[in-house]
Amino acid sequence: EVIAGNDDWNGTRISFDLKQDGNYVIVLFKHMDWREPVEFMHHCSTKWAIFLMSLKSLIETGKGSPNPSDVKIDNWN
């Protein structure tokens, strides 16, 4: 559970579950329990995807794009 940070995040829960599928590992990511579907939630959904793609790149190639070198999508960065 998120207990400190952006007010919209407080009280939400983040989980990562790993699932083996043949030669692959699937990351099942969830950011749950938002109080309401605010605009910031949509920003976070996109940013989580960017961070997970960066993590995948880091694992596969040795080079990721962590903050502050990640893709900028809006003024909340």
Which features would summarize this protein structure in a list?
77 residues, 2 strands, Alpha-D-Glucose-1,6-Bisphosphate, Chain A, domain 4, two-stranded antiparallel ribbon, 23% strand, globular, alpha+beta
Q: What does it look like?
A:
The protein is an alpha+beta fold and 77 residues long. The protein has one domain (7-61): Alpha-D-Glucose-1,6-Bisphosphate, Chain A, domain 4. Helices cover 30% and strands 23% of the residues. The chain has 1 helix and 2 strands; from the N terminus they run E-E-H. The protein has one helix at 39-61; strands at 13-21, 24-32. It has a two-stranded antiparallel ribbon with strand order 1-2. The longest helix is centred in the middle third of the chain and has 23 residues, at 39-61. The two termini are 22 Å apart. The mean pLDDT is 91.
Helix content: 25-40%
Overall residue-averaged pLDDT value: 91
Looking at CATH, the homologous superfamily is START domain
Low-confidence stretches: none
CATH class: Alpha Beta
Q: Count the DSSP helices.
A: 1
Question: Strand share of the residues?
Answer: 15-25%
- Shape type: globular
Rg calculated over all Cα atoms: 14 Å
Number of domains: 1
Number of strands: 2
Major beta sheet summary: 2 strands, antiparallel
Short description:
The protein has one helix at residues 39-61, and strands at 13-21, 24-32. It is α+β, with helices and mostly antiparallel strands and 77 residues long. A two-stranded antiparallel ribbon has the order 1-2.
Summarize the helices and strands and which ones pair or pack.
Layout lengths: L12 E9 L2 E9 L6 H23 L16
Antiparallel strand pairs: 1-2
